């Protein structure tokens, strides 16, 4: 058996999603039948206090003991992102800060020579994403937005079926997708705070849109043509960010439209995505970030439910894809290429323009 390619990770930010991601990369790859790549957690940084970095490592004491494939010594804590970026042992950084920080932190990471996996939404606007992608290419570094759902094996299978010439569900006539939650109604909460890139669209609305991109932007008949976009936005009485968005994506070459909804009030209950096809429908349950099954209903037949098996939270699959790309010297991953992140950001730019949602100077490009 050949030795797996091992990737050394530095984690930037000690919040909720950094915890979930780190737990997943510490799962032995054998638990998901992966043998070609593995991961080592070498360092973590907090922008606010080194104590938070120490605590973060403590939170993983038990996982680090189980992660037998770990070959390096103790995980190093840092009290600033800059200090971690200066650590020569770190090959790739995971950026788990709020969206308002992604552009600045990714620029610093690229300038420090690190490969990057950055949480969604990638940046605040398409211009910032384009700048990061151009800089990564110039520096010959790998860069990817963490649209983790794309990497679930069952979802890749569904995507292949839908885009196959056999068209098992016939032509798709229309789709409806929704990712809505009941967020804490607080102006200081990340989801409502404009200084943290708040609003439903960038945080949750990105999922209904990315699903449409997986299924239709990539349909061979669409030939990677971006959809036309219309939208309606309700602004929050608390802070003015978008509290509810309805986005209609029109796929001219495919001859149908997708309705994408998101809201910080009134959570999605059951179906998060419905594909209406000529021969049958497909139903995907909430949440669109991590659905646990999908149900196919061919017209006139019984419903057939397909379970989606997810060991851990499921973020390890995107980490495995990053490791494979870096092992091959790829600067972007074919499942989440730069241009698709840019096109999705362009859709969200258009919606925010319609809704008059701006993040002011946080949206500027660095000179
Ligand atoms: N993939 C997913 O399913 C998923 C789910 C949830 C969130 N996310 C994304 O992950 C990012 C973080 O979300 P989260 O839920 O983990 O947020 P969170 O719990 O609030 O954590 C964010 C962390 O970012 C750091 N940070 C850096 N600059 C900051 C600033 N100006 N204000 C506040 N915190 C700052 C802080 O850690 P330090 O003080 O240690 O630096 C903070 O703990 C967002 O972009 C979000 O969209 C993705």
TrEMBL record:
The record's GO molecular-function terms, alphabetically, read: D-xylose 1-dehydrogenase (NADP+) activity; nucleotide binding
What are the protein's UniProt keywords? Oxidoreductase
- Segments forming a coiled coil: none
| SUPFAM superfamilies according to UniProt | Glyceraldehyde-3-phosphate dehydrogenase-like, C-terminal domain, NAD(P)-binding Rossmann-fold domains
Read off the Pfam families from this record: GFO_IDH_MocA (PF01408), GFO_IDH_MocA_C3 (PF22725)
Q: Which InterPro entries match?
A: Gfo/Idh/MocA-like_OxRdtase_N, Gfo/Idh/MocA_domain, GFO_IDH_MocA-like_dom, NAD(P)-bd_dom_sf
- UniProt domain GFO/IDH/MocA-like oxidoreductase: residue ranges: 169-282
The chemistry this enzyme catalyses reads:
D-xylose + NADP(+) = D-xylono-1,5-lactone + NADPH + H(+)
Domain Gfo/Idh/MocA-like oxidoreductase N-terminal: from-to ranges: 68-144
Group of enzyme by EC: oxidoreductase
> EC no.?
1.1.1.179
Q: Does the keyword Oxidoreductase apply?
A: yes
PANTHER family (UniProt xref): OXIDOREDUCTASES, TRANS-1,2-DIHYDROBENZENE-1,2-DIOL DEHYDROGENASE
Family, similarity comment: Belongs to the Gfo/Idh/MocA family.
Q: What is this protein called?
A: D-xylose 1-dehydrogenase (NADP(+), D-xylono-1,5-lactone-forming)
* UniProt source species: Dacryopinax primogenitus (strain DJM 731)
**Taxonomic classification:** Eukaryota, Fungi, Dikarya, Basidiomycota, Agaricomycotina
């Amino acid at each position: 058996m050949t030795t797996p390619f091992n990737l050394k990770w530095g984690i930037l930010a000690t919040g909720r999603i950094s915890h979930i991601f780190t737990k997943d990369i510490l799962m032995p790859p054998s638990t998901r039948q992966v043998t070609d790549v593995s991961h080592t957690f070498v360092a973590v940084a907090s922008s606010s206090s080194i104590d938070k970095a120490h605590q973060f490592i403590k939170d993983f004491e038990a996982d680090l003991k189980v992660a037998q494939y770990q070959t390096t010594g103790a995980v190093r804590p840092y009290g600033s992102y800059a200090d971690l970026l200066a650590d020569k042992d770190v090959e790739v950084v995971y950026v788990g800060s709020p969206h308002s920080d992604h552009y600045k932190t990714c620029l610093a990471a690229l300038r420090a020579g690190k490969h990057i996996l950055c949480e969604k939404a990638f940046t605040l606007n398409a211009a910032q994403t384009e700048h990061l992608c151009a800089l990564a290419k110039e520096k010959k570094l790998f860069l990817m937005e963490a649209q983790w759902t794309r990497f679930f094996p069952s979802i890749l299978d569904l995507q292949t079926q839908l885009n196959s010439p056999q068209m098992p569900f016939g032509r798709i006539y229309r789709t409806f997708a929704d990712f809505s939650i009941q967020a804490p109604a607080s102006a200081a909460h990340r989801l409502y705070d404009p200084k943290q890139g708040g609003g439903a669209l960038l945080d949750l609305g990105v999922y209904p849109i990315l699903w449409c991109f997986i299924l239709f932007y990539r349909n061979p008949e669409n030939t990677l043509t971006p959809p036309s976009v219309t939208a309606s936005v309700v602004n929050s009485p608390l802070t003015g960010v978008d509290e509810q968005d309805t986005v209609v994506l029109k796929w001219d070459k495919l001859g149908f439209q997708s309705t994408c909804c998101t809201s910080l009030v009134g959570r999605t209950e059951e179906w998060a995505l419905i594909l209406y096809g000529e021969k049958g429908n497909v139903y995907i349950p909430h949440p669109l970030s991590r659905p646990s099954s999908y149900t196919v209903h061919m017209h006139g037949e019984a419903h057939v439910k397909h379970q989606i098996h997810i060991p851990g939270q499921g973020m390890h699959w995107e980490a495995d894809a990053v490791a494979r790309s870096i092992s091959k010297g790829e600067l972007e991953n074919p499942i989440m290429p730069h241009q698709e992140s840019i096109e999705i950001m362009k859709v969200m730019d258009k919606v925010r323009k319609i809704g008059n949602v701006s993040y002011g100077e946080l949206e500027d490009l660095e000179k």
